[in-house]
Specification:
196 residues; two-stranded parallel ribbon; 40% helix; globular
């Protein structure tokens, strides 16, 4: 519209996205590493960046080090991406890769393209990478009820835990395998099915 924009007057998020886009356009190397590109970016911009990075990976390898679930795209995993999680203990640091087994691939395909996929492999599922204590339950509403009960009994939860509804008791073994692959040390399962 004929207006000039002085980049030095822009916010840090605007500067960051211009830097990332410039790098993607001008740097034609086969491998590109982006370290925490989410810093200073609005969640909506992160979603757009995730789409751009997914498209760019068709032409080259992009390694993203992130603390943002917005940059974990399950479709990328189906397209050949590798997801890894760094685990730090008192003794050492390990990097664990998520292994795309046939069972997990089928679970993603059946849900990412289906009606349940919007919730099942949403931002909530991507948060799994960023917690140490995980509780797997049959449905997400199960964890919400448990969380409400814990808050009522303890006023404040005495511990931090990530609860995730796996979409039914039949999916629990697959998610246990996923958490094992990613190197989780503490994973619990809560189900109302006594036989399991």
């Amino acid at each position: 519209n004929g207006l000039n924009y002085k980049i030095h007057l822009g916010g840090s998020g605007v500067k960051k996205i211009i830097l990332i886009c410039s790098t993607l356009i001008l740097n034609k190397q086969d491998i590109l590493i982006l370290d925490e590109p989410e810093q200073s970016l609005h969640p909506k911009m992160l979603k757009n960046l995730s789409k751009v990075l997914s498209e760019e990976t068709k032409n080259r390898q992009i390694i993203v080090i992130t603390h943002s679930p917005y940059l974990v795209n399950w479709q990328d995993l189906l397209n050949g991406a590798s997801f890894a999680r760094t685990n730090i203990s008192k003794k050492c640091c390990t990097i664990n890769n998520l292994i795309l087994t046939k069972k997990f691939q089928k679970l993603i395909c059946n849900n990412i393209y289906g009606v349940k996929g919007y919730l099942f492999f949403s931002l909530k599922a991507s948060e799994l990478f960023f917690y140490d204590n995980v509780l797997l339950v049959e449905g997400q509403e199960d964890f919400s009820l448990l969380q409400n009960w814990l808050n009522a009994v303890y006023n404040d939860q005495p511990f931090e835990i990530f609860g995730y509804g796996v979409g039914g008791v039949d999916n629990i073994p697959t998610f246990l395998e996923i958490t094992r692959n990613l190197g989780f040390g503490r994973v619990a399962v809560l189900t109302d099915n006594i036989e399991d």
